[in-house]
Design brief:
Blueprint: H1 6-17, E1 23-30, E2 33-41, E3 57-61, H2 64-78, H3 88-91, H4 106-110, H5 123-128, H6 134-144, H7 159-173, H8 177-186, E4 195-196, H9 214-217, H10 241-245, E5 255-258, H11 259-273, H12 283-289, E6 322-327, E7 331-336, E8 341-347, H13 358-375
Antiparallel strand pairs: 1-2, 1-8, 3-5, 4-5, 6-7, 7-8
Helix pairs in contact: 1-13, 2-7, 2-8, 2-12, 6-7, 11-12
C-alpha cells in the first residue's frame, strides 16, 4: 500500500540535507482535525546536537503578528472594547502619539496600509537607553516615524504598525501583551507552551536558578542565528533585533511555540470562523477580522494567497479564501477557510544564514502542494 504521507516526510528530510534548515516540524489537517505530523533534523548544525522532536519549540518570528497581536485585538473586539474602524487617537490617548498618527485606524495598521515605514533599526537606540525605559520605547519610536505615503493608498508590510498595535492591546486591556495573550487566549484554549519569553524570565521547564545556558542544554529550542546581537544566545531568545532589545515581547515578533500548539490555535480559528464559539474567540469577531477589507490585499493581521500562482508560498491548491502568514525564521501556517485544509510548517532556516532566502522560498510551495495532495486537494487556483 502506498503511503500518501511519505512524500511529506521525505521533503522535510531533503530540506535538512539540502541546507534549507537544520530542524523542521510540520502538521497537516482538515477542518481542525490533525491528519499527519512529521519532524526532521537536529536542533542545530553542531556535531552531536539533539534531534528535533514534535515538542521542539521554534521562534515563530512574524507569526506573532496574526497569532498574538491580531488575536488579542480580535478578542477585545469580540468583547466590544474596540473596532477595526477605531482610530489610534481614540485608543491611545498618549502624549507621545503625534497628531499625524491619530487618524490611523486599526484596519489600516492590520492590513499594512497605514503609511508607516517597513522597518527601522530601533534596537540600537533602545539598547542605549536605560533598562527601565526599554519596554515602551519601541512603540514610541514607531509612533514618531514620519509616514511614507498617505494612509490607505498603498500596502507596505510594516513591523512599525504592529509595534503600535501592541500599545493598543495594552492600553485597552490594562495588561501587557504577553500577559493578555497567555491569560486571555492561550491558556483558555489549553495551550501551555505557546507564548512570549521575556528576557527577564526563564523559559518553560528551565529551573529558575539557571537562566540562559540550560535552554539549549535541555534541547527544548531550535537554534536560530548565532551572533545576531552580542550577548544573545542562539536559542530560547527572540531572533528579531528590535524585539530582543525591547525585552523579548513586541507586537511584531517574540512568540515561541511547538508545532502542535500552533496547529491547535489555527484549528480553533477555523472552528470559530465556522460559527462555533471557541474559548475567547467569538464567531462574529473572527469572521470580521478574516474578511479582506475594501481596497486591501490582505485580511486584518493575516496574509492571503497572491494573484500569481507561481509566487504563492502556500502553493497552488489553497483557495483565494485562505489566510496565513510567514515568519522570517522559516515558519509559516496556512488555513483554507473554504476547503478546511490547514498546514503548519516550522523551521529554523535562519540558523544556516539569514541572507539565503531563496531556499526556503522554493521549499515552502513544494511542501504545501505535497501536503495539499496528501490531504486530497488537487484543484489548482
Amino acid at each position: 500500500m502506498v503511503d500518501r504521507w511519505a512524500p511529506l516526510q521525505q521533503l522535510l528530510e531533503a530540506g535538512v540535507s539540502q541546507g534549507v534548515f537544520s530542524a523542521a516540524v510540520a502538521l497537516a489537517g482538515v477542518e481542525g482535525e490533525l491528519r499527519w505530523q512529521g519532524v526532521a533534523g537536529a536542533l542545530s548544525q553542531d556535531p552531536g546536537a539533539a534531534a528535533a522532536t514534535m515538542d521542539t519549540v521554534f521562534d515563530l518570528a512574524s507569526l506573532t503578528k496574526p497569532l498574538a497581536t491580531t488575536l488579542a485585538l480580535m478578542v477585545l473586539a469580540g468583547r466590544g472594547r474596540l473596532a477595526l474602524a477605531s482610530p489610534l487617537g481614540e485608543l491611545l490617548p498618549a502624549p507621545w502619539l503625534p497628531p499625524d498618527k491619530h487618524p490611523l485606524t486599526l484596519a489600516s495598521l492590520l492590513t499594512h496600509r497605514s503609511g508607516l515605514p517597513a522597518w527601522r533599526p530601533y534596537y540600537q537606540e533602545v539598547l542605549a537607553a536605560p533598562p527601565e525605559a526599554r519596554p515602551t520605547l519601541l512603540e514610541r519610536l514607531a509612533a514618531a516615524a514620519p509616514l511614507e505615503y498617505p494612509p490607505d493608498t498603498t500596502t507596505l508590510y510594516s513591523d512599525l504598525g504592529f509595534m503600535l498595535l501592541k500599545a493598543v492591546v495594552e492600553g485597552v486591556s490594562g495588561k501587557n501583551l504577553d500577559q493578555f495573550c497567555r491569560e486571555e487566549i492561550y491558556r483558555p484554549l489549553g495551550l501551555n507552551i505557546l507564548g512570549f519569553i521575556p528576557l527577564s524570565k526563564t523559559a518553560p521547564a528551565v529551573p529558575a536558578t539557571e537562566k540562559r545556558k540550560p535552554k539549549t542544554e535541555n534541547h527544548i529550542f531550535a537554534d536560530t542565528e548565532p551572533g545576531l546581537i552580542p550577548g544573545r544566545p542562539p536559542a530560547g531568545e527572540v531572533h528579531d533585533e528590535n524585539a530582543w532589545a525591547a525585552g523579548g515581547v513586541a507586537g511584531h515578533a517574540g512568540l515561541f511555540g511547538p508545532g502542535g500548539e500552533v496547529f491547535h490555535l489555527v484549528a480553533s480559528l477555523y472552528r470559530a470562523y465556522g460559527g462555533e464559539p471557541v474559548g475567547p474567540l467569538t464567531p462574529a469577531a473572527v469572521q470580521h477580522f478574516l474578511t479582506v477589507p475594501p481596497g486591501a490585499d490582505r485580511a486584518c493581521g493575516f496574509d492571503i494567497p497572491g494573484p500569481d500562482p507561481a509566487a504563492r508560498a502556500a502553493g497552488r491548491y489553497f483557495s483565494p479564501r485562505s489566510i496565513g502568514h510567514l515568519g522570517f525564521t522559516g515558519t509559516s501556517f496556512w488555513l483554507d477557510l473554504e476547503t478546511g485544509q490547514m498546514v503548519v510548517l516550522l523551521t529554523n532556516r535562519v540558523h544556516l544564514g539569514r541572507d539565503d532566502k531563496t531556499r526556503i522560498a522554493a521549499f515552502r510551495p513544494r511542501f504545501h502542494e505535497a501536503a495539499s495532495r496528501a490531504l486530497g486537494f488537487t484543484q489548482p487556483y
